[in-house]
Give the backbone structure.
Amino acid sequence: MNWARSPAVVRAPATSANLGPGFDAFGLALGLYDQVEASVTGRGLAVEVYGEGEETAAAGERHLVVRAMRAAFDAMGGQPAGLVLRCTNGIPHGRGLGSSAAAVVSGILAARALVADGADRLPGTEVLRLAVDLEGHPDNVAACLAGGLTVAWHPAVAGGCADSGADVAPGVPGAGSGAVVVPGADVIRGEPPAGRPVRLLRFDVLAAITAVACVAPGAMATHEARAALPASVPHADAAANAARSALLLAALTGDPSVLFDATEDYLHQRYRAAAMPATADLLARLRRAGVAAVVSGAGPSVLALGVAGAPPGPAAAPPGLAESRRGLADDRGDLAAGRPVADGQPGLALVDSIARETGIAWHVTPLKVDRQGATVHAGTGRPPPGTAWQGRSTNQDPEPGVHPAGGSTQGRATDPATHGPQSRECRGL
């Protein structure tokens, strides 16, 4: 194998999965980033970590970025003699904002960039499949790779169909008795079968959609949150959730007036409430105030979605909706600065005031929707020694030579000026 002479630098966005009803399928990329710089050396392994998770530098080969790189190198046919890895992290760990997905995606893309013909050896479909195998489920990694809003799924077996007990182990109550099995009970328990085909679709989010993250002061492991989920749910809940999921796609890409109703969940949030009572309390307070709030991923953080310039509530829709649908609002200064447009928007002022009422030290910050996904370029992104790069809300233009590096496919046509060659390579996933 021929190794690249210059370092590979990958920037991967935070992601929020589920978004309420889109359980294990929907993902939204957010403007908060981890950066990984990797180089091939003559021998050994050196890992430096700045910012979030500095203590993980001592993990060596067990570091998640290293594990992802090793898996990618194996898939491409060889391992380098040595590696130097430098991580500058802004995504909080264990808070439901996709930190593990960012690590996995960064590792795979860095490894691919360090091999001269890496894009041929590991095409976009394989990048996505490998990332899902390592992460365990596709929602976060799809959004991290492609940016924007993504829907990810495992294709059905040709000619097959699911029956009421397809994913239920013998003796699971509810099978065939008016209950609907939650797809992939093995996935819920954190043991997904490796190598399953996976696909994604990417959609552009309306420029008027705003996001505010309430980052929890403490972490919660994803497997703990998933352990609270039942093996089956009532049929009526499954039907209602299917409708809300379809509505959510429409709200984020076409008609935000239905955003509040579209973020109502029937599959997972209520079942996880006992495991994260502070999250459940904040979520209930925000929704009582008309804010389209959801648990971010498996929690414990909360994501509040809104529409710029519109009051919160079931009928929120901004003036000039047609303009936002055409994407012309992308250049509005108030949005570019990451500031709430008005108190009526579920922005910093409203969400922060409600969060303060709980007495919990939530870190409340507005975040832009990331529209690029993970990017890769050659160069040096090293922070000054002894400093920690602090993640922040950002919607910066890419640096020269930076290209989106996701396995993305668009629900609509992709503008080549917005999505770079590596993204275009992976359409049709």
In short: The mean pLDDT is 78. The chain has 15 helices and 14 strands. The first helix runs from residue 64 to 76.
